[in-house]
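hey m, so remember when u said the tokens were messed up on ur end? i reran from scratch. heres the input so u can diff it against urs
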Amino acid sequence: MSEGKTSTPDTEIPVTIAMSSRLLFKQEQQDRGPAFNFVKALKAVNAELRSHYPESEELFKVILIDDNPSSGILKHKIHEHGLKDLITVLSVTEDQLVSELKTNNTHLYLSDKPGLKVQEAVNEGIAAATMSTPKTDMPVSEDQLHVVFDGDAVLFSNESELVFQSDGLQGYLKNEKQKVKIPMNEGPFKGFLEVLIKLQKKLHSKGLCKKCPIRTYLVTSRGAGCDGYRALNTLHTWGLELDESVLLGGGKKGPTLQRIRPHIFFDDQKSHINAALEVGSVACLVPSPKNNK
């Protein structure tokens, strides 16, 4: 587990996702925000987990960071949409935010605006990203959570990206060939993937394999050569098996996201974020940890 958590992988604690309340409900008109379908999918997964593990506390828990605690509209909307059992509302100052995230064993923090707090959370070992609203709403599953991860600087460290930036494509490919059997260091979202796969395994053990309510995807610009093999070998070394890995070889991610229809997509490149938003996918920009730069 990452530094932001104090538990061990076998400890049954909630999978805690904190986010700005504006991501769930837009502030003025209280319309649905970009995270609404994601949160509804978390609720659907919890229903399956409760039906098979009624005594377990290992469920998704959403913490809403409320910037306007004096208003009762937010709690009314939570109740109206049947999300009361899933959501806890937290009023906290910006200075105390990261400390509160750590206190609550937060696995993922989603902000509606980029800034130092997202970077600070990542530097403290918490998976964190800035969520953007797509231009159109892509239809997504109501009973199966689809989560898509980029590889470099998201699941993996940014070590290979730094080689690409300094030595170009040929230098990058040479580096990956030389290190093809050497696993990469972990990136900021490895821990979040771990808890998702742990929940998947619990559901698989109850016979929910093909109909598991959680599906995980790797969508990477790496190709099918040594660079792609190194990514897959790294995941295998970690004991993490995603439902699908797509090696695009530098191709555009938009068409793949249109096929997968994710509730949430994590990437560190603004170009891929923009491509996702163009096809209607909710996309989250991941900053690089300072110690990887």
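this time it looks ok to me. Strands lie at 15-20, 60-65, 87-90, 106-111, 127-132, 145-149, 214-220, 244-247, 264-267, 283-285. if urs says something different then somethings off w ur setup not the seq
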